[in-house]
């Protein structure tokens, strides 16, 4: 049950920080680092990150963001599969 809450939290966080970074980009203010965004994906926020990229139209032209979303999904899918079915 805690794992579900964790994934909900990290995905919501990824979605929000992508939106905040887009807002900051529009306002020409100090931005959230790309490393922070990518780390949020790796920590499990790949669904929120994907949704944020689509909704906010942010970082969609950066190929490595799309790559890291796929890598993060594969990592977490593999970990969860091994955790529940091994």
Walk me through this protein's architecture:
The protein has helices at 2-26, 34-56, 63-85. The mean pLDDT is 95. It has 3 helices and no strands. The protein is an all-alpha fold and 86 residues long. Helix 2 (34-56) packs across helix 3.
Question: What characteristics describe this protein?
Answer:
86 residues; mainly alpha; 3 helices
Brief characterization of the structure:
By secondary structure, the chain is mainly α. It contains three helices and no strands. The chain is elongated, with a radius of gyration of 13 Å.
Q: Bin the helical content.
A: over 70%
Structural class: mainly alpha
Residue fraction in strands? under 5%
Instruction: State mean pLDDT (0 to 100 scale).
Output: 95
What is the N-to-C succession of helices and strands?
HHH
Q: Which segments are poorly predicted (pLDDT under 50) over 5 or more consecutive residues?
A: none
Question: Helix count, per DSSP?
Answer: 3
- Biggest β-sheet: count, sense, barrel? none
- Annotation, overall tally of beta strands: 0
Cα(first) to Cα(last) distance is 19 Å
Overall, the morphology is: elongated
Radius of gyration: 13 Å
Topology:
Layout: H1 2-26, H2 34-56, H3 63-85
Helix pairs in contact: 1-2, 2-3
């Amino acid at each position: 049950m805690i794992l579900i809450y964790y994934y909900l939290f990290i995905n919501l966080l990824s979605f929000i920080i992508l939106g905040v970074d887009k807002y900051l980009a529009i306002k020409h203010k100090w931005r959230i680092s790309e490393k922070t965004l990518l780390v949020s994906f790796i920590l499990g926020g790949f669904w929120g990150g994907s949704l944020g990229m689509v909704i906010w139209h942010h970082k969609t032209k950066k190929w490595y963001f799309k790559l890291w979303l796929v890598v993060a999904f594969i990592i977490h899918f593999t970990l969860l599969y091994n955790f529940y079915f091994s």
